[in-house]
Amino acid sequence: MEKNNSEVNLNCSAYDYLLENNKKYMDYTAITFENRKITYEEMHDRIEKYARLLYKKGIRKNDVIGVCVVNTPESLYLMYALSAIGARVVGFSLFDTKDKVKKDIELTRPKMIITVDMMYGNFKDFEKSLNFATMLYSPMSSSENKKLKTLYKLMQITKGNFKLSPNSNLEHLLKEKVLEDYEKSNYTIDEITDIMFTGGSTGVHKGVDLSANGLNYVVEGMNSLFKAEPGMIHLGNIPFGHMVFGRMVMHFALCNNMEFALTLKAMPEDFYNELVRTQANAAVGGPIHWVSLIEEVNGKFQPKSTLKANSLTNLQYATSGGEAKKITTDQAINNALRFCGSDAILGDGLGSTETWATIIANNGRKNTVGTLGNAIPTVQVKLINPETGETVKKGEKGLLYVSGPQVMLGYHDNYEENQKVFSYDENGVKWFNTGDYLIELESGEYKYVGRQKRNFVSGVDNIYPEQLESLLVTLPEVREAVITAISDEMRQYIPSYHISLYDTNIDYELFEKKLEKLVLTRLGESWLPGKIEYFDEPLKRMANTKVDISYYSNRDKESKQKSLNLEK
């Protein structure tokens, strides 16, 4: 059955947009979880039940409600129920420390936090002092594995992740019959519906105010680049509670009447097995997920030995996001997909928390390999010369500015940061500076250069860390690399290399000669390292799977301080 292409109102809540798109497909499978299959009709019934319950518990339009969830059916019902009521949803990460969580609560001041019980420890010490209620539920609610459910429950009791009051237990409350209806949200365009957190590329933690119509516009834009048909299976591995990437993927899959295959196994080591288990037609992951399909043997990448021939024959779309992928592994990943029987070609894209994820996307089937692809049609983009403020020509490097409904309303209660990133053109149009340097090609596709905030000057040269990192990983010995800046009195800054090696049992003198020749030939003397730090394991990552650049910058500062102390 072909997708319904009739126009749907985008300036509405996420739930209304979902419902309008699903009306003709209620008997299709909406969600799978373990061995369970849930139709669109059943999904909407559960969302409505959750909405009535939450309304009875006092949640109203514009109430700030925190969520800390994992990818289970209950979490999905919860997110859309809060959208139906019109609450403002704050996404808390399962990977954050208690101190970080406390700061985010202080910033957003939620009325209630609904969390999987295993994360209750991050919230329970602050309930009284920060004046919020909590409601718990188990991520095992939909599991059919009774033994696992029992073991999990015992573990949470042992850890103190429970509340004695049944009124604080979502599963208990759902057993009650709630006949009273809820007051459906009267949606206003560009109202705050979600607050997500971002550390960006600088590691500075900020709340991001987003709107539901912005999310709808992203999905509509993605529809023009990817042919999603009702009944196709989309892997649901990216966290949708606290990551805009995961939320966008969920909304895209369900609004296109796909089968959303939820999984709690979201780590790279589980990726291939989950693709096989769900027989997904489409999947997204970070570069680290797709690289898990290959391995390095004798200096060359090849399909991982554990892959099985023709095991992914249904996979049509493979997309990488969240972090710049390495072109050096692209062909090997595509070869691995071919070995597994998939005709998908790994695509890419560019987006941010501030723009509900996707701005530019590469459909591997249509776009040029090595590019980010095209801007989605629901967003306006332009590349600006930061020194002149003028739009650059095709083929010239410029800062990416974005405008449109999907752009954040602003950083939450952060006037100073908003002043830095927003500007208005002569027509009064509001533009967001993403901080990314791009080049538009003659084809209309875009190529990534680097981050504005990571750039630094060494001597008379501008150093673009991402450009240098991409060059270093072309060396067969290098798994990953991060470039940071060390302060220098004569040259302002000099590059510091942090390199993860596949094998540390190498001739370092020979390797560094090869590295020096490569950098000198391709980029120049100013790009050579002032210091090299080697690692025998993958580089440290943040909760959103991006490499933690601030961690390596701090290592440089600590190293310099130790040197100064020794000199004294």
Describe this entry's structure for a reader:
With 568 residues, this protein is α/β, with parallel strands linked by helices. It has 3 domains: 14-27 and 35-213, Rossmann fold (3-Layer(aba) Sandwich); 233-450, ANL, N-terminal domain (Rossmann fold, 3-Layer(aba) Sandwich); 454-567, GMP Synthetase, Chain A, domain 3 (2-Layer Sandwich), CATH 3.30.300.30. 30% of the residues lie in helices and 25% in strands. Strands 6-5-3-4-7-8-20 form a 7-stranded mixed beta sheet, sandwiched between helices. The radius of gyration is 24 Å and the shape is globular. Mean pLDDT is 91; it is low at 1-5.
The chain-level mean pLDDT equals: 91
Helix coverage percent of residues? 25-40%
User: How many distinct domains?
Assistant: 3
Quantity of strands, as a count: 28
What's the CATH C level of the largest domain?
Answer: Alpha Beta
The main sheet comes to: 7 strands, mixed
Helix/strand structural class: alpha/beta
Cα gyration radius (Å): 24 Å
Q: Reading side by side through the largest sheet, how are the strands ordered?
A: 6-5-3-4-7-8-20
- Approximately how much beta-strand content do the residues carry? 15-25%
Distance N terminus to C terminus? 76 Å
